From TrEMBL:
Protein name from the UniProt record: GIY-YIG nuclease family protein
Domain GIY-YIG residue range list: 1-77
Source organism per UniProt: Hymenobacter algoricola
A Pfam family this chain is assigned to: GIY-YIG
Family listed: Belongs to the UPF0213 family.
Matches recorded under InterPro entries: GIY-YIG_endonuc, GIY-YIG_endonuc_sf, UPF0213_domain
TM annotation in the entry: none
Residues in the signal sequence: none
Length: 95
């Protein structure tokens, strides 16, 4: 399981999610960019800036809820500690 955070090029919004296949999920987000009815499409959040690996779904769901409850400043600090430049992270099948 992976918890992850997406943003867009100007970083005004963050999208927090979890999945059992990060590469597949990122591809799904990218395919939905034109769909204005979905958050990731509306805000063009297609840049992976943070991810973590969880051992199974129960802690992954708990962690997703925890992150969603954090302030923006705390989320920004987490991302910056993991990825100081907020560069888009490339994912391969091995992640």
């Amino acid at each position: 399981m992976h918890g992850y955070i997406l943003t867009n090029t100007i970083r005004p919004v963050l999208y927090i999610g979890m999945t059992n296949d990060l590469l597949r999920r990122l591809e799904e987000h990218s395919l939905g960019l034109g769909d204005a009815g979905k958050f990731t499409g509306r805000y063009q959040t297609n840049l992976l800036v943070y991810f973590e690996i969880c051992p199974n779904p129960v802690p992954a769901i708990a962690r997703e809820k925890q992150l969603k409850g954090w302030t923006r400043a705390k989320k920004d600090a987490l991302i910056t500690a993991f990825n100081p430049s907020w560069a888009a992270i490339a994912v391969s099948r091995t992640v």
